[in-house]
Amino acid sequence: MLNSPRLDLVIARNGRVLLVTFVLLGLVAAVAAGWVVATPSERTVTEEIGEEEFTSDVHTSAVVVGGDLWNESETLEDNAVYMVNATPELTIEQTTSVPDDGSTVVYDTEVRYEAVHDDDVFYTETAFQDRATATVEDGTAAAETTVNVSELADRRDELEEAIAGVGTVEVALEFYVHVESDDDAWYERSPDEPTMATELVLTDDAYWLAASPSTEETHTETAEITVEEQPNTALVGAIAMLAVFSIGAAGFVYSRSNVDAEEARLALHRQRYAEWISKGTIPMWIGDHQLELDSLEDVVDVAIDTNERVVYDDNRELYAVVNGDVVYYYSAEGSWEETTWPYPEIGRQKRVSDTDRADEPDPIASFDAADAFDETDVPDEELPDPDDDDAWEQL
């Protein structure tokens, strides 16, 4: 490939343009590779900077208003069972431990009836909703909600009558906890998922919580930081390879800058039409007419048209097709006679264009008779009379 006549012809025709192009491309690629290494890109990533633990609990209390078991006005706290006639109202207190003082905690409490058949809920009705807001002090926030259990029991009985024994009616307690930290970040498990939940079990005379709701959640604190990425090794390598290739190509073009376009074209034609060319000897006396063509390609065209072979004489650097008494030939050395006589002024002369001949000085126009002879060429004595035959015989 590096010795390709086609490549030599391209370089001979466009060598200067190719050299400048490859040099500029190599310099630009080298600068680009350096810039990529020197100026790595940056990107913003979310990074964990810490964790916060939130603990929420539910506590119950009720004030005694009658009955024989407790003193009136006595406050019962976290009882396992409460009597409806003695403590008809239940106070629910939610507490949350938050690491950051000054944060705000929002509590949403919802009491809902659920009609259940074979463990599937087929009817729901919201009985009570309440929202309370508390500020964190000493790492703890608390809020209270009071529920009238007697009214819940009455509505429960009405719903059981309505479903006519198809299922049971349960009273569900759901608690949603939302924490807004001092950096305006909100924490909640899910808008549709309660933080805690339990069932309020109701009988004709008593009620209690089926479980003591509590939860502990871990909230990951994040922050956006800017990190510097390592240079793209593949990109830098590709640009560097481009720079090396371009500089190498420029060096190659420079090393072939002395390639002659006519020689490259002749070599290309010789390679392209090798199947039509045979090597041999072409005597100067062959044929009565010798027609000079402009290129080897023209000689091959004649060979194809006449169904003859092109004969290449390497001694004369001559390509010829003999068709009868006519010889069609081409030679980069000159005319038919110039390829025959091995004289310096005639043989083996490179073909020159009219433009090149125009640049050569005219030997006749530049001839100066005064410079043609020096003083020694002039005879010292005067010549005799032209009519004096004896004097000329003596001379």
Q: Structural class from helices and strands?
A: alpha+beta
**Total beta strand runs:** 17
Q: Which radius of gyration do the C-alpha atoms yield?
A: 57 Å
Helix and strand pattern = HEEEEEEEHEEEEEHHEEHEEEHHH
Give a brief rundown of this model.
The protein has 395 residues and is α+β, with helices and mostly antiparallel strands.
What does this structure look like?
This protein has 395 residues and is α+β, with helices and mostly antiparallel strands. It folds into three domains: 63 residues, no CATH class; 177 residues, no CATH class; 104 residues, no CATH class. It has eight helices and 17 strands. The strands form three sheets. Strands 3, 5, 6, 8, 9, 10 and 11 form a seven-stranded antiparallel sheet that branches. Strands 1, 2, 4, 7 and 12 form a five-stranded antiparallel sheet that branches. Strand 8 and strand 9 form a beta hairpin. It is rod-shaped, with a radius of gyration of 57 Å. The protein starts with a helix and ends with a helix. The relative contact order is 0.12.
